[in-house]
Amino acid sequence: MDKQMTTAEMVAQLRDGMTLGIGGWGPRRKPMALVREILRSDLKDLTIVAYGGADVGLLCAAGKVKKLVFAFVSLDFIPLEPYFRKARQEGALEVMEIDEGMLLLGLRAAAMNVPFIPTAVGLGTDVLRHNPEIKLIASPYADGRDWVAMPALKLDAALVHVDRADARGVCQIAGPDHYMDDLFVRAAARTYVTCDEWVDSAWFHAEPARAHQVFWERNLTTAVAHVPGGAHPSSCAPLYGFDVPHFKAYAASAQSEEGWQAYVDQYVACSHSQYLERCGGLEAIRRLPLPVF
């Protein structure tokens, strides 16, 4: 079984108006090569579900996003992602802003194929006031309480980046945290994966510990592409950290009217190999230090 595709072939399978879940967390292990491929496409009116970083900002700046379901959109050391901030302040998109835990539960409900999961998260907060589509439900048990019924966040497709993968769609995440990528995958009808390193299937059997870094079954992977450095400028620990100078220049581009087009011309309107060259090459990316917390 061979599930190899190019990123262009993956994006060609997406359609206007789809709900896309984007894996990773802020500036960490985002499928940025796939995001740039979407920017080069005609896709529009997307609903994006994400623990957002520059993936969300880029799609907002390009006018691709109709609705955003999110808990935060941040570059960490730059607390508010600049292009997301601009889109939000201008009222350019619909939003469903929820707690990080509520987003997790919405993905988990979709993964479990149930309509909602009851939770105490959100009770007594403005999350419910600003999201009237989120309902309360009375407990059927003796506690007699009302609980938040966090609705399932069903995805048409999930986009994720992993450390390594094989042609069958077996994916390894070797970093210290796989975030919610497995839930994004399980909540989605289709999953498109990019990987930094391509391995033979026998590689996964060479060391038993590697099996513990595989978080979903290969039948859930629709297609996979070998894209070295495909998470840049976000990180892909332990292979490389996020690119602080690049993010600073990116944030600065949001401060001028010409900045967005200049960024697109330099880093989007090009092939992935050209992108790597313009960022100093793959070896330079692999030398980016891992963040310390």
From TrEMBL:
Record keywords, A-Z: Transferase
User: Is this entry keyworded Transmembrane?
Assistant: no
Name its pathway: Aromatic compound metabolism; beta-ketoadipate pathway; acetyl-CoA and succinyl-CoA from 3-oxoadipate: step 1/2
Q: SMART domains, alphabetically? A: CoA_trans
Catalysed reactions listed for this entry: 3-oxoadipate + succinyl-CoA = 3-oxoadipyl-CoA + succinate
Glycosyltransferase: is it a keyword of this entry? no
A Gene Ontology molecular function term of the record: 3-oxoadipate CoA-transferase activity
Pfam assignment, any one: CoA_trans
This chain's protein is named 3-oxoadipate CoA-transferase
Source organism of the structure: Pseudomonas guariconensis
Q: What is the lineage of its organism?
A: Bacteria, Pseudomonadati, Pseudomonadota, Gammaproteobacteria, Pseudomonadales
